[in-house]
Amino acid sequence: MPALDFAASAALTFGVELELQLVNTRDFNLAPDADDLLRRATRDAPPGELKPEITQSMVEINTSVHRRYPELLAELRATRDVLAGHARKMNVAISGGGTHPFQKWSERKIYPTERFLSVSEKYGFLAKQFTVFGQHVHIGCASADDAVYLTLALVRYVPHFIALAASSPYYQGVDTAFDSSRLSVVNAFPLSGTMPFVRSWREFNTYYDRMFGLGIVASMKDFYWDIRPKPEYGTVELRVCDTPLTVDRAAEIAAFAQALASWLWEARPDVSADVYLTHSYNRFQACRHGFAGTLVDATSGVSRPLADDLRETFDRLAPHMSLLGSSDALAALDRLLDGGNDAAWLRRQYAASGTLPDVVRHQAALWAG
Amino acid sequence: MTAADFLPHWPPAINGFMVFGLLLLAGLCGGRLAATTRVLPAITGYIATGFLLGPGGLGWLDAPLLAQARVIAEFSLGLIVFDLGRRLDLGWARHDRWLLPMGLAESAISFAAMFALLHLLGGIDSLEAAVAGTVGIATAPAVVLLVTYELKADGPVTRRMLWHVALNNIVAMLGITVLLPFVEARAEGASWNPVARSLWIVAGSFLLGYVAFRVLALLARWIGKSPGPQFILTVGAIIVTVGAAQASRLSVLLALLVLGACARNLDREHRLIDVDFGRAAQLFFVFLFVLAGAALRIDQFGTIAWLGLAFVVARTLGKAVGLFALAWPAHISPRQATTLGLALTPMLGLSIGMTQPIYDVAPEFGARLTAVVASGVAILYLLGPIATRYALLRAGEGEPAARD
Fold first, then answer.
1. Which domains does chain B have, with CATH numbers?
2. Choosing among B145, B274, B326, which should be mutated to test the A contact, i.e. which has the most A CBs within 10 A?
3. B43-67 b/e with 16+ CB inside 10 Å = b?
4. Is the distance from CB of A55 to CB of A112 less than 8 angstroms?
5. Is the dihedral of CA B179, B184, B186, B192 positive or negative?
6. Are the beta carbons of B212 and B240 closer than 8 angstroms?
7. Which residues of A lie closer than 8 Å to B, measured between beta carbons?
8. pLDDT, tens digit, for every residue of B163-210?
């Protein structure tokens, strides 16, 4: 087979994919209305692209490619307004959040495209369990080797993204005690985890050829890694974030990823295979405890609260975010360290209202702006 | 006193419990048989069972037994109509400005088609044609809800279907109430003011539904949001409202529809949870449809069976025209409009619920009405559930074997 070509793109351009929940307004369970919503909303041609996802209660927003945070935020808000308007006419609501708090996965319906039906055939019940909602951030890379470096260098920061975006404390009707329970669902897939530790695009191609030759993968889409190069877009795709409860938060997190890439490419901190030693542990800590989780740095041997490392990272990125026009996003994210992430917000709603349908009602209202 | 006095008489007298239990079991068997065909919904089996056991079939269920069962039938209908009312989200009509016009168009055009057929082509008296046309506006709420439960259907067509059913029932109910004084004026011996009676039924039923909601909301605030107590609270409120409507000679259907609609639209503090009646509701559904089947009388078809058939066609076409006329501006796809039209096929039985006041005040008029459209009603009893099931499956919104 021919080598994977990496279509280089302008460095530090960025875009977002957001998977969203469709819920009915009666009992706030998931509603299988993706087809109808996409049919209606496409007429208004919102910016970017609207797509179906694995089950009929999900839709995905793909933004256009942007250079600056305010433009991305404006586009996300415009798309949200178009979708929310159509949803209201259909008597459904749209909601953020990494999981729907009480839906039963067995009741979901696979969206009938060739790809999703084949995923369903391949993975059995995992396909319907994959009714979870994530935010993916794409960062443009000038070269394939830059993409490989960024993919490895971002691994240390996976817990940071998980904690900032965590919005899935409830799953299948219970409080999981996790801030992000969504990633536990992703873990079940055989090709989840991390990219192997390779140093160049050439090495990556060698690995990919072997996996392809062994019949394990047919395309890059078969890797459910936390971070993966996306050669056809010329980007690195960060896939660990829950869909936040608002598009504003989604844009802030994307801006954080952009600034982090900017700093990593500029400072080029050395990345060793040691980062994989602690990755699973750190990732679990962030999923389970959010900002209060422990971060173990395999290189320095230091353990400390994730919140402390986040504060330090924010300080380091401040000049980059200033240059990239995303200081507002930095300030908003910084406030989360004291006020709590989306998972904390959801738990507060439950404490105040007492039922999970009420929680979904509140989160749908929050998403609509 | 003899030694054998403690023994029951033989054969033992049938009582209400035995009727209820036996009808349930017989209905269950009929439903299972229908389900094995993989085409017929279970509801068709319940109706067929009732027909077989009723006066039109083997005659095992006679009028006194059916009268005993009516109390439970009224409660079953109340439960169903309350649930339908909960689907009548008025906020939706504010956001989708075509929703209400489409519902009214579907109701008005189907009425016009049925009236024109019966009066102009069939030569039926204009008042009888108007009453028959008005009854025909309504889609049978129990049928569509049972099929919806059975298929666990959800989606844009299902949601719209339930909204249309709620609306067309209200329209038909108001229409019947408007026509009732004219019917009564013709009936012999009508000695009281028929307009006042209509006003009493409409205003009283609305008021009863609203007051019942206020009480329900007040108690819900007190007991909190636990599903168990809220289930008991809701069912209790339904039973009391059914009883109060009967005692006050109001419309059970309208009062419960209003109660459900208030629960959906006026519960601003979200004190009420969306109670799932689940298996308990299924129990009453089976019973209701076996009874409905028992009320079916092929011997009442009369000599104008063709008119009943034409009535079905006019009703179906009228609804379809109403839906298609506004489909484009309402962003409804042709496929959705088609499945929606089919899903609205089921029609109410003539002698239950909505038309009961007519039979009460003018039995002869009721008999003539039955003669005109009995064959149409019979056809829709058979075809209605099948059409709704087919439509929801065709729309991709139900699972064929969802609820065992």
1. 14-394 (1.20.1530.20)
2. B274
3. bbbbbbbbbbbbbbbeeebeeebbe
4. no
5. negative
6. yes
7. 24-27, 31-33, 35-36, 39-40, 43, 56, 88-91, 107, 109, 112, 353-355, 357-358, 361
8. 999 999 989 988 988 888 788 777 665 555 667 777 888 899 999 999
Is the Cβ pair B224, A361 closer than 8 Å?
no
Closest CA to B251 of B161, B358, B166: B358
pLDDT of res. B177? 80
Burial class (CB in 10 A: 0-12, 13-18, 19+), B69: buried
Average pLDDT of the residues in A235-261: 98
Q: Which of A263, A241, A259, A258 is CA-nearest to residue A250?
A: A241
Domain-located, residue A7: no
What are B217-249's pLDDT values in tens digits?
999 999 988 888 999 999 999 999 999 998 998
CA-CA distance, A327 to A133, in Å (whole number)? 27
Residue A2 lies in a domain: no
What confidence score (pLDDT) does residue A326 get?
97
> Which residue range forms the structural domain that includes residue A352?
14-368
> Which chain A residues are within 8 Å of B163, Cβ to Cβ?
91
CA separation, residue B132 to residues B78, B311, B372 (Å): 23, 9, 8
Which residues from B are below 8 Å from A354, CB to CB? 224-225
Residues B225, A43: C-beta atoms closer than 8 Å: no
Residues A48-104: tens digit of each pLDDT = 889 988 888 999 999 999 999 999 999 999 999 999 999 999 999 999 999 999 998
Token code pair at residue B304: 């104008």
Question: Which amino acid, B59?
Answer: G
Strand A58-62, strand A14-24: pairing: antiparallel
**Nearest chain A alpha carbon to B160:** A90
Q: How many domains does chain A have?
A: 1
Closest partner residue to A36 among B96, B156, B270, by Cβ?
B156
Query: In Å, how far is A46's CA from the nearest CA of chain B?
Result: 17
Q: Which residues contact A184 (CB under 8 A, 6 or more apart)?
A: A176, A178, A287
Residue A335 is part of a domain; what is its CATH number?
A: 3.30.590.20
Partner-chain contact A107 B273, CB within 8 Å: no
Strands A58-62 and A49-52 turn out to be antiparallel
For A71-140, the DSSP string reads HHHHHHHHHHHHHHHHHHHHTEEEE-SSS-SS--GGG--B--SHHHHHHHHHHTHHHHHT---EEEEEEE
- How would residue B404 be classed by pLDDT, with cut points 50, 70 and 90? very low
Q: Alpha-carbon distance A363 to A244, whole Å?
A: 10
Tell if the CB–CB gap between A355 and B225 is shorter than 8 Å.
Answer: yes
pLDDT tens-digit map of B142-166: 889 989 988 989 999 999 999 999 9
* Helix or strand (DSSP H, E) at A247: helix A247-267
CB-CB neighbors (< 8 A) of A35 in chain B: 396
Q: Which of A22, A23, A26, A104 to mutate to test the interface with B (most CBs of B within 10 A)?
A: A26
Which residue of chain A is at minimal alpha-carbon distance from B224?
A354
Residue A72, pLDDT score:
97
| C-beta of residue B90 within 8 angstroms of C-beta of residue B265 | yes
